[in-house]
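Input record (Table S2, row 127):
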Amino acid sequence: MTKARKALLELLKESKEPVSASMLGGEPSLPFDQATIYRNLHYLEEQGFAESFILHCTEHGTERYYSYRSRSEGVHHHWFHCEKCHTFIDLGGCAYQEQMKEWEKQYGFTISDHTFFLTGICASCKS
Ligand SMILES: [Zn+2]
Ligand SMILES: [Zn+2]
Ligand SMILES: [Zn+2]
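Output record (zinc ion complex):
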């Protein structure tokens, strides 16, 4: 693995929230240009170490967010994004495997991937 890949993987592992490439551009631990960061995030996702989704919000516009994915466990997480304070809340590992199987049976297709996230107002912004 190249230096950039290792550094990015470490950062994704430690991050409690999904991160976008533009957020990572300002990280002191990542002294790489934007193109290198994009390319390596894409690589990590292709190799099954990361996953991404595209989210639009008023604060950050349309961005692709990356989060760590354990290759051995194969478990990915789902997220809630607050439209007011723009933090992500980790909803834990995917709980939709049973539903997927049902849909595969019902429609006869084979699911290779899915993206799912929630947006709304978090508890502390509500009060
Ligand atoms: Zn909030
Ligand atoms: Zn936001
Ligand atoms: Zn899922």
